[in-house]
Specification:
Structural class: mainly alpha
Helix content: 55-70%
Number of helices: 32
Strand order of the largest sheet: 4-3-2-5
Largest sheet: 4 strands, mixed
Distance between the termini: 84 Å
């Protein structure tokens, strides 16, 4: 009978051939997934955020203090710059023209005149010098020369009598009082000033404003030279005019001079708005600007000269030119540049995503971890831009911290890639070119490659010290290549970068516990602390299930050596092995290693119930671990060390029971499997295999090397063909290496011992 159906032509058969999808089709299918769209959108949002942080719509200002340009820097746009020195000078001059206000109270000077009159009357009332108080007479002596003290004390009677004769008698005393009043009258009228007081800054030194005490008006402008006491010559001259006998005027001035300061009549009026007037005068002075033209017209010097280090004054000038140029940029120019910066950053993040897609899927597969990395990247760029200020130049610190955090949380390769991308973004942000990029990448690469496994608290400090040395040498070398003169400025910059690198090491030491908690990672230092046998869970395991504890210790030793042989984290596997069976302590008697010579507790249970009891130690262990705040990587090892394997012994029992029962059906295999998940890391795969081979090796009657090797191969092949290693990333080559390591460890554990002649069996 001929075959049914339509007969197709050869071309139709060729066209119907369904070939596997090509590379572009697979790429398009991958890009069509929603989770990929979300990650691409997240990368785009991060690129936009970084562009906003670095102000990517404008080119950066590329100059720093101390930098020596290799050629003259010319003005590219016409601009004006405030001459700070000239402006400050004019403002100070304006403030100095404001007159201070003083209050005039003549009472102290009147009291001084009356006291002088009384002292003179007291003095001339004595007929002889011997009757006069010598201190009183000495206060009238017209000299302060110490060598003349003796002469003053032994003043002649004639001098005293001469002074007394000029003032003795009612008429002469009245004339004396009148003359004294006339001599003091001008001074009492305009006042005297002990010293200039300028609490608000330097004011007018030539004139002051004076008003009477108790009244704000009238205000009189007085020359300072007319009222300032100084050496008292004004009063001396007035006394000489009124007392023709010069010796009398000299004696009167000798008594008055040392008392003038206390008798000053002018005091500063602190209620007057002098401060406000000075501020107004300051504000009234407009900034003095210097005009610069573009294209360097004749007679205009360059903004910065070649071979001369940039100082603060030159940086201010260059920044004024830069700000003017940025203000002249159109909206279209800004949008175009910002779009280009977003596109470049976005492209770099996409390339990083492709790397993670093929080489390290962990951060990319977890949306939370990817988001944390991108948020950290934006934060680092923001902090680096802030720290890149000319005063600090500390952009190296956040970048080094970023690199070391990723190196600890993930792999060094990913840390190198993402740190290089951020270094390139920072070069875009600060505009310092290849010099800055090589310095940042060189120092951060040194720190990342030396971070490695952290087993001591001082490790990160030594990493910072070594990175600081590299930063110091790199800055000097790159500076010389960049034609920077070798001198104190270059050495200062190099020392600064070295100091920042060392500081980053110290900061990372303090941040390490927070990094571990935030990213859910464990350093070797934390693992060493966690693996201490004094941990409460381990102590309880020793007390309740000592044989399980011994099994865990043996598994830890075997798995650590196997993990180290393939470059995995052996310490993590060993500590995880200590805790992987802590769930057994809740029902220790149901596990064979704890039963000893007693009857099995499973004899009274059906296979399904026995399987549930055995499988339950996974959930019990993870619950105990969470209750005692064990880190997530340890909890993962507890949950994954059996994967989704089958509880073979009780499954076989159930199968035999079903086979012997005429009414029995098929055994539900899912009831005899562990809940999983399958091992997600190489460390979990190693722990699974070590746990299985250690338990199986106990059943060997004669643990000869050949039998141990065959046993390990059978267990490994069984797990491999059961698909337990599919998600772990373990290769066949690594699996064979693990097998060899475990064989060696088991042979070492079961090596033969010499039986001595007198040795008795225990």
């Amino acid at each position: 009978m001929p075959p049914s159906g339509q007969i197709r032509t050869r071309s139709e058969r060729v066209a119907a051939l369904d070939l596997p999808p090509g590379q572009w089709e697979r790429t398009w299918a991958s890009l069509s997934r929603r989770d990929v769209h979300v990650r691409i959108a997240l990368a785009l949002l991060t690129a936009i955020a970084i562009t906003i942080v670095i102000r990517g719509w404008n080119p950066p200002f590329p100059y720093r203090t101390g930098y020596t340009p290799s050629r003259d820097v010319m003005a590219t746009v016409a601009f004006s710059e405030v001459d700070q020195e000239a402006t400050i000078f004019e403002r100070r001059r304006a403030r100095s023209q404001v007159r201070y206000v003083y209050v005039h109270d003549p009472k102290p000077l009147v009291d001084l005149r009356n006291e002088l009159r009384n002292k003179v009357i007291e003095l001339v009332a004595k007929e002889k010098l011997a009757d006069v108080d010598q201190q009183l007479w000495q206060s009238f002596q017209p000299t302060d020369d110490p060598e003349s003290v003796t002469a003053t004390e032994n003043a002649s009677e004639e001098e005293f009598q001469q002074f007394r004769a000029a003032l003795t008698g009612e008429e002469k005393l009245q004339q004396f009082e009148k003359s004294l009043e006339i001599a003091f009258a001008p001074i009492e009228q305009r006042g005297i000033l002990a010293e200039l007081v300028e609490p608000y800054g330097k004011g007018d030194q030539d004139e002051i404003r004076v008003h009477p005490a108790g009244a704000a008006e009238p205000v009189e402008v007085v020359k300072v030279s007319d009222v300032l006491i100084g050496d008292g010559n004004v009063i001396h001259e007035a006394l000489l005019r009124e007392f023709p006998e010069h010796h009398v005027a000299d004696h009167l001035f000798a008594w008055t001079k040392p008392r003038l300061a206390k008798a000053a009549t002018l005091s500063l009026d602190r209620t007057a708005p002098v401060q406000w007037e000075m501020d107004q005068a300051d504000k009234a002075v407009k900034p003095i600007e210097i005009e610069y033209q573009a294209n360097q017209p004749a007679g205009q010097p360059p903004l910065a000269r070649a071979g001369i280090p940039l100082d603060e004054r030159t940086i201010t000038l260059l920044r004024a030119e830069y700000q003017t140029a940025m203000a002249q940029r159109t909206l279209v120019e800004r949008v175009v540049r910002a779009t280009a910066v977003v596109a470049i950053i976005f492209a770099m993040f996409l390339l990083c995503g492709m790397y993670m897609r093929f080489r390290q899927r962990g951060p990319l597969a977890s949306f939370g971890r990817l988001t944390a990395i991108l948020i950290l990247a934006v934060t680092v760029v923001a902090l680096a831009c802030l720290a890149a200020h000319d005063t600090w130049r500390g952009e190296l610190i956040p970048l080094m911290l970023f690199g070391m955090i990723l190196s600890i949380a993930y792999r060094q390769e990913l840390a190198l890639l993402l740190t290089g991308v951020l270094a390139l973004i920072l070069v875009f942000a600060v505009g310092h070119g290849l010099h800055e990029f090589l310095l940042l990448t060189g120092v951060t690469t040194t720190a990342i490659l030396n971070t490695g496994r952290i087993r001591t608290r001082s490790k990160l400090i030594y990493v910072g010290l070594f990175a600081g040395l590299i930063a110091f040498l790199l800055e000097i070398g790159l500076g010389l290549i960049d034609d920077q003169p070798f001198g104190w400025q270059l050495l200062e910059n190099a020392a600064r970068y070295g100091l920042w690198a060392v500081m980053a090491g110290f900061l990372m030491t303090g941040l390490l516990p927070f990094v571990e908690r935030a990213f859910g990672v464990l350093t070797d230092l934390s693992l060493l602390e966690l693996g201490d046998v004094s941990h409460p869970l381990l102590q309880e395991l020793i007390r309740r299930a000592p044989s399980t504890y011994n099994h865990s210790v043996t598994v830890g030793s075997i798995s650590e050596a196997a993990a180290d042989s393939i470059g995995a984290r052996g310490l993590l596997v060993r500590v995880g092995a200590y805790f992987h069976d802590i769930g057994k302590m809740l029902k220790p008697g149901y596990f064979i290693e704890n039963q000893g010579d007693k009857a099995s507790a499973h004899d009274s249970l059906v296979p399904t119930m026995s399987s549930l009891v055995i499988v339950a130690h996974i959930k019990d262990g993870s619950d105990l671990a969470r209750q005692h705040h064990l880190p997530q990587p340890i909890i993962d090892l507890i949950e994954q060390h059996h994967g989704t394997t089958r509880v073979g012994f009780f499954y076989e029992q159930a199968s035999k029971k079903m086979a012997s029962d005429p009414n029995g059906g098929q055994v539900d295999e899912s009831s005899f499997r562990y809940p999983g998940p399958k091992p997600q890391t190489k460390e979990a795969a190693v722990l699974m295999l070590a746990d299985a081979v250690e338990s199986a090796s106990r059943t060997l009657v004669d643990p000869a090397p050949a039998r141990i090797e065959r046993l390990v191969r059978e267990v490994a092949e069984h797990r491999l063909h059961g698909g337990q290693f599919d998600d772990s990333g373990l290769t066949l080559r690594e699996l064979r290496t693990i097998e060899k390591s475990m064989v060696k460890s088991l042979i070492a554990n079961y090596h033969g011992r010499i039986k001595y002649p007198d040795q008795k069996m225990a």
